[in-house]
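Worked Example 4.2. Consider the chain below.
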Amino acid sequence: MSKLLVVQDSVIVRATFKKLLDECVVFNYDLVATYKEAKALLATRRYKYAVVDRVLKDAPNGEIIALFNKHYLAPLVFTNEIDEDFFDDFEGANIVDYIKKIKHNDEAFAVDRLLQLRENRDISVLVVSNSTAYNSYLKQNLNLHNFKVLSTFKSDETYKKIDLHPEVSLVILDSNEPYINTLEIIEYIKKVKTKKELKIIVLANESASYQTSLLLSSGADDYLIKEFSRDEFYVRVYQNINKVR
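Applying the procedure from the previous section yields the following structure tokens:
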């Protein structure tokens, strides 16, 4: 079973998590209340998943996130506030996702998110970009969500990857030239895959209607305008992944 560490200082929240996790029976979990307890466990055990409260009594400024990142673990974060400082942390730190504490069923949502992350291990995504920076950025964020990630830098490599990996269900295609011919790749994909089998998200350099219209009419399923936020990136990825599942 997958190892999970939950850090929540509320007795009620911990009890709710215990009930939910016992019912889903797929996680071998530990429940603790403090930064100190989490630090002690992380020193002796390895975890695959984590759910933490951003503000703890002994770590009121989000120090728990840095602790998990130090141990190469990206947590799912509960937070009371969604502000500019938080989004700076979200963009800069290794955080899988966040949940604002406003609903009565936040814990159930968190468990559903964890189950999604487990399922992502069987979902393959192909990143196509001749930009080393974008290729690395996209792979890093997809890896945070446990997707199987393949990548290419040129058009000819892309055709080979698609042929060799029929399990790929999402292609994220950077429209930069000269090494990537976006329209030709879209056309090739549409010859060998149906819309139900594989989705295409194109990264566009500008929001000019003629460019995005051309990409969509040629067979792309969605697009993102650079520079996009991680929030927007994940929303688009899941919207398209869910259409081929």
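The domain at 2-118 is CATH 3.40.50.2300 (Rossmann fold). The chain has two domains: 2-118, 123-241. Compare this with Example 4.1 before moving on.
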